[in-house]
Amino acid sequence: MAFGEFDLIDNYFTHRWPQRDDVVLGVGDDGAVLALPQGAELVVATDTMVSGVHFDEQTPARAIAHKVAAVNLSDLAAMGAEPAWLSLALTLPEADQDWLNGFSHGLKEICDYYGCQLIGGDTTKGPLTVTVTAHGFVPAGTALRRDGAKPGDWLFVSGCIGDAGLALAVQQQRTTISDAHYRRVLERLYFPSPRVALGQNLREIASSAIDISDGLVADLKHILKASNVGARVDVDELPLSLAMTESVAADAAIDYALSSGDDYELCFTVPESRRGVFDTVLAHHPAKPICIGRITNEANTLTLLRNDEPWFSQREREGYDHFS
Fold this sequence. Notes:
This protein has 324 residues and is of the alpha+beta class. It has helices at residues 5-13, 61-78, 97-114, 163-171, 179-190, 196-201, 216-227, 242-245, 250-259, 275-281, and strands at 23-25, 33-34, 40-50, 82-92, 117-125, 129-139, 154-157, 208-211, 230-234, 266-270, 290-296, 302-306, 309-310. It has 2 domains: 5-139, CATH 3.30.1330.10; 154-310, Phosphoribosyl-aminoimidazole Synthetase, Chain A, domain 2, CATH 3.90.650. Helix 2 packs parallel to helix 3 and helix 4 (163-171) packs across helix 5 (179-190). Mg(2+) 5 binds at residue 214.
């Protein structure tokens, strides 16, 4: 029996999904109808993953689904938004039912966990490409932005960085590490955890925020440019996992932390006047963010320090750029 586009949608993307009360009309019509909470503003983020660029043929379909949703949810987290709805555009070379089963299960798992509902999208035939648009909301006027950092603000990251880059280096045979540590960092690469709860907790506290998708240096510079400020970062304070510190030399670990993408931790700034509130609100947070430096008045200037001396990365590029 032929397996067509509408069979694909009905079998894998219509049933068994979380159902939200604010979805008036979801999958199955020309468009979705959504009820936005009173007094809220909509936050929208879109990311695309392309076979051969963001993942290879060995990447499990479940991991592809998780990650393409997670990177969008991470963008919402960086804005302090509550996730609500996802739409999916899926381009497939063929209707491989085993692949679709793994993909739809992976997408449903992350939707279940973060309380999102799939509300529609599109399916086409062509080179494997996955695009997700995530929609969320914030109370009006409370969205976190990149342009609010001020001199004197403290600079934080939400957790260990560099692990996804280390996993990719192993995959590309640029380095070798133990099997146990590889499993740990591969999990970070395939199944990142967007810091959604943290982002919402930071709405009334942080002066700016961004998620670390292209590397700490590259993404921090977006804050510096938008806010017209500089930053001083103590590289010895960068949070590194045990897998990282036991696998590579100290300088290499710092380089991975500074320039590797795909960690999807948050980088954010907190004014001195809100440090007490910040410490109180996050006192019981499962993983307390780490302070790595401070914002300065040297516009668009990032200074890396080690033992109070300038430190320079040995890596050629400071973050991922699709067109570099």
